[in-house]
Fold this sequence. Notes:
By secondary structure, this protein is of the alpha/beta class. It has two domains: about 280 residues, Aldolase class I (TIM Barrel); about 70 residues. It is about 40% helix and about 15% strand. The protein has an eight-stranded parallel β-barrel, surrounded by seven helices. A two-stranded antiparallel ribbon has the order 1-2. A two-stranded antiparallel ribbon has the order 8-9. The protein is globular. The two termini are about 40 Å apart.
Amino acid sequence: MTSAPQTSPAPLTIGPLTLDVPVVLAPMAGITNTAFRRLCREYGAGLYVSEMITSRALVERTTESMRLINHHESEKTRSIQLYGVDPKTVAEAVTLLVAEDRADHIDLNFGCPVPKVTRKGGGAALPWKLGLFRQIVEGAVTAAGNVPVTVKMRKGIDSDHLTYLEAGKAAEGAGVAAIALHARTAAEYYSGQADWSAIATLKDTITSVPVLGNGDIWSAEDALRMVAETGCDGVVVGRGCLGRPWLFGDLAAAFRGGESGAAAARIQPDLGQVADAFRRHAVLLTEFFESEERACRDIRKHVAWYFKGYPVGGDLRASLASVVSLAQLDDLLGTLDGDQEYPGEGAEGPRGRAGSPKKTSLPEHWLDSRELVSAERANLTEGEGDTSGG
């Protein structure tokens, strides 16, 4: 196995943006809202991307989409991810963000494997239609002007329908500022092991812009190993930070000091520190939602992630997962033995649902041609119909 680098890497440049730590928080629906981004930033450094926002919802200025594109004043680099399947609508959404000075970086989602997205031809399904993919990216880059546009994608639909190399070259030709690859197909969902060799292949193929690797980064050591093995210019971290916002502190130490720096500065919180982070997350959610009740509903899904491996009983976990107020949350957290030490391996490794390989939901006859046929083009409007905002 190739050893991890021992010296600090060069800063990551994405258009006019320079990141001294080449780390990006992956957009995650229902997770990477302002509250979670702020919490992660308090521990580390890098680029923190919003949850996915539907282009049509943004163009129609729905209440939810307009709330999701807001950033806290502490977020100096405002990064927004857009999803869409219609070039015109995506370009209009980008134009809105730029004209109203709402973003410093825009990412385009071509990696989502969720059936409700792929069955409309979006997310990881879309690069199969290479011409459509190119139109969307070119239109977004043109509309963005000086604001850098990046793309995040998967290897393809399945092992028989890989798209990442052609899509990567098309995106590079369209003028994107960076390309991120989640090294799984849509059919793999989050199962099995990410194919880091695909990241290396993409890095060898794309020569003019940074290539970022995504998939199975559960620790800072994993991030260093990915860079060493693939040559990628930076890493995108998703599920590995669920319930572990301090991972970004580990990552910053690792990239600034190499493997030895990562080991020396590794954050291993006791139960009291985890409880403090959990409560801080709830407080930030309260600010974001402007509702304590809604914040408490939202924090419930984070309980299992934060307390993974710690000696927290089932009854208490259940109570935390049904909390209705910050006062109740304080009472429950007050019953914990905060001096319980970091449990090691039990708190580490994979988190979040991996799922299992499955046939990807696609529009009828989607795989018959790499180009968009007239009947499919007519259905693009339907594909933009989800105006939920993410």
